[in-house]
């Protein structure tokens, strides 16, 4: 597969996990190639939407052949940066932190969870599927030692900013934020919010319509 | 506040929780009114974006006065349908289900969690902050008895469709879906997916750029 332009719109990027999921399912079923029409029918999209999306990153199907599924999957992996390992930590070992630590997709896609951190002495030194929970005061040294780039923030809203500041000072460059608050971070630091309220309110709005 | 048109774009709907959060914070601080300029500066938006968004649902500020914060908050509540109670259940009492059950925003905004359901006998009959976990075989009767409209799906991917089908047959009309799969549901049933992979992959993409 040829190299592709990095100028992919965020709308396409946000659809890639869905392509990735369907392509993986097809590989599991032993399928080698697929037409934009078939893929569209499976995914509830038109063939032309599929072609448009995949063209964005050099996924050119061949007339009469369609797309090579393995090639397409590999191209998506490179584009998403999941063709190589990412070292992560989770801060906040409550139910949400534990749910993320146990999240299968997370582990399968090259996100290597190195440790969890909490302030609760009852949780510190516990093991979650082989992942140790450390006291949060050890976080800075840990981030530096293991060159951790992704911090997953599962602490209450009130503590989110201070933990984020510490993570960034220690070297983290991307925060996956589950706390319902807007973090203030220096330019260049990536914040990806998982906004559960937004999602729940959207559901409520649609139900109310 | 006047009645407002229901034709609000989903982009605006998805921004409303953020307005709602900031307005609540302002009320807590005792503030009564705010200009679009001030609100914009707090929220990282321009004054004209604020005015455009709020105009969509009849939130008309007055020249020289700005917006009445309480009125604006009430209008958003009505629009989002969170001015009245919603009866919910959670299916799947693993870490994710427990995290949702303990999610503060959820409880404060009129979402009344009636029960949780699981298949694991070790979990059945346990109580989570006063919420009982029932066996999933009791789900259908429970939905009918309490006229549950919102089902929160926290089961593994493999069981998601069958549980969704049962929920809908029993009378649920909206599913908040945390399982990483595309549910097939009849027309008119609302599905709101919380797609953690999509979010994580977006973060990874941005880190890779």
The number of strands of chain A is 9
Percentage beta strand of chain A:
15-25%
Proportion in helices of chain A: 40-55%
Regions with little confidence, pLDDT below 50 for 5+ residues of chain A: 1-5
Oligomeric form = homodimer
Secondary-structure-derived class of chain A:
alpha/beta
Number of helices of chain A: 9
Computed Rg of chain A: 20 Å
* Arithmetic mean pLDDT of chain A: 89
Query: Looking at the structure, what is the overall shape of chain A?
Result: elongated
Strands side by side in the biggest sheet of chain A: 5-6-4-3-7-8-9
SSE string of chain A, helix = H, strand = E?
HEHHEHEHHEEEHEHEEH
Largest sheet of chain A: 7 strands, mixed
Span between termini of chain A? 46 Å
Query: Most extensive chain contact?
Result: A-B, 53 and 53 residues
Protein architecture, described:
The structure is a homodimer of 209-residue chains. The first copy, chain A, is of the alpha/beta class and 209 residues long. In chain A, helix 8 links the parallel strand 7 and strand 8. The relative contact order of chain A is 0.09. The first copy, chain A, has 9 helices and 9 strands. In chain A, helix 1 crosses helix 4 (69-80), helix 2 (36-43) packs across helix 3 (47-55) and helix 7 packs across helix 8. In chain A, the strands form 2 sheets. Chain A has a 7-stranded mixed beta sheet, with helices on both faces.
